[in-house]
């Protein structure tokens, strides 16, 4: 967008920063508006490493998808996937396993419009309007049931959304409800920012995000671990994402430069 502010998206508010569009800007994309860019630059003033974190989150998800394909998973549900960029879940999965089925779930109109346009000719990939806070509605969507058989193992990816949902919205309940709907042998992969190694950033960053989302208290790694209740964490467990099965070993100091933890839980 950049120079086409809001064109073609009915009712779109371009004056309010949006998480998906801000992430697109941090990843070098063009599908963002002035408000998103200004918000992202304010965030970078507080924590310049956030730009690196956006890239590392994409790399983490690619490693997760590769691992899950090796485990025999053929179905993927990517929740709050953000705007289509390079190396999306369907690209990685279908490159390794032609015919792998992927559904993207989001509730942002720009994300939905772009995803549907990009994926219009990919019959093994679909787009669903939904949220982890409304799991029953999401799993019952016709596009979801067309592509995903929940009676067979499926991988659910939630790479960077839960950190924006306060406890009052009951995100733990949403994840648990979805987990209970999955077949044995399914997986849940989660990425989540934490401030364990950078406590001084918590207040300024949360104050900034409260301008656009009803942000709750910052979660620690131990609180993020609760999202995996009822699953069996695969090795190496819930770790900083740079330490999750990296191609090159990462020291603790290197890993903590990206203060996002991630893990994959198997549904028994």
UniProtKB/TrEMBL annotation:
Source species taxonomy: Bacteria, Bacillati, Actinomycetota, Actinomycetes, Streptosporangiales
Organism encoding this protein: Microbispora corallina
One of the Pfam families matching this protein, by short name: Methyltransf_19
Name of protein: SAM-dependent methyltransferase
